[in-house]
Write a structure and sequence with these properties.
Length: 323
């Protein structure tokens, strides 16, 4: 099968090279998928740069989510059949023609959704659900503040929060991105380049939950923005991870500061998340309430171009590799 490897183990986008490897084999409890599309995520860039290695037992090939059709079943797999259209959350291996995955980590692709649209769902939907809805406890009638609102995670969070009946305050950089976030459903869309974020968020009533992908530069803003009992959920730290905060303000507001990564979770925990996502989020996907935009697609052999496009930061939504 064709795969994308990182020449030298790490490096710039130019280090991505097509290569051939033997087809994987589905073991007991696993499914082999013929990959038609693979979502690209910021953790892929980190892995390429040598700072986010795959967890033990995972493929060294990049790629955390795919969509395709079931091609082979390992012993004991009963839910799925050869030919089923599925998307899947992976620990790695998506930048390839074929991948094997725990059968419990698959979701059915709804009718009317193509492989490209389905490939952008697992990593982002699981991340938002685990962090905003489980750790953050977002409920209908509450307000979610999203930083980096036009990223792959951001656009998914907007749609999921609105589907759940929440109000969304979005921050992004530039008039075009601000307009895009508003078009995706954000109730308040702020331009981090020109708007007084603290004042505008306060005028909007503050936030019950903050989904933070920025880190250090927005720490003070988040402390101000959160209502009493608010939850500050960190899933990335693009501006830096080391922050000094006033714990007295945390105590006085009864705030919760939490964060997580998805890739390192156990297979059983990912299986639990898959079932929860299918029960709660998949009806929104079926109804078209959650349909993250795709900025562009690239053939597998042009993975380097796709990484450069993601690094440029001018996108709304996600990039996808196609077989």
């Amino acid at each position: 099968m064709r795969v994308i490897e990182i020449e030298g183990g790490s490096g710039p986008a130019e280090a991505l090279r097509p290569a051939d490897r033997p087809d994987p084999v589905a073991r007991a409890g696993e499914v082999m998928i013929r990959v038609h599309a693979a979502g690209i995520n910021r953790p892929d860039l980190l892995q390429r740069n040598g700072v986010y290695p795959p967890p033990p037992g995972a493929s060294d090939i990049m790629g955390l989510e795919v969509a395709g059709e079931v091609e082979a079943l390992g012993e004991g797999v009963t839910r799925w059949a050869v030919g089923d259209r599925v998307c899947a959350l992976l620990g790695g291996g998506g930048y390839a023609d074929r991948v094997v995955v725990d059968a419990r980590h698959l979701l059915p692709i709804p009718d009317g959704l193509d492989y490209v649209q389905a490939a952008v769902l697992p990593e982002t939907v699981f991340t938002v659900f685990a962090n905003v809805f489980e750790a953050g406890g977002l409920k209908a009638g509450q307000t979610l503040l999203i930083h980096g609102a036009t990223s792959g995670i951001g656009v998914t969070a907007i749609q999921m929060a609105k589907a759940a009946g929440a109000t969304v305050i979005a921050t992004s950089r530039g008039a075009d991105k601000t307009a895009a976030a508003r078009a995706l459903g954000a109730d308040v869309s702020l331009d981090a380049k020109t708007d007084d974020l603290a004042a505008a968020i306060a005028e909007a009533g503050g936030a019950d939950v903050v989904l933070d992908m920025v880190g250090r530069d927005y720490a003070e803003l988040n402390l101000k923005a959160l209502k009493a009992g608010g939850r500050w959920v960190v899933i990335a730290s693009l501006s830096g991870s080391k922050v000094e905060i006033d714990l007295m303000r945390v105590m006085l507001k009864r705030l919760v500061l939490t964060g997580s990564t998805l890739r390192s979770r156990s297979a059983d925990e990912k299986a639990r998340l898959t079932a929860a996502v299918e029960a709660t989020v998949w009806p929104w996907v079926v109804s078209d309430a959650v349909r993250p935009p795709v900025q562009a697609t690239f053939p597998l052999e042009r993975a380097a171009d796709a990484h450069r496009a993601l690094e440029a930061g001018d996108h709304v939504g996600k990039f996808v590799l196609t077989a």
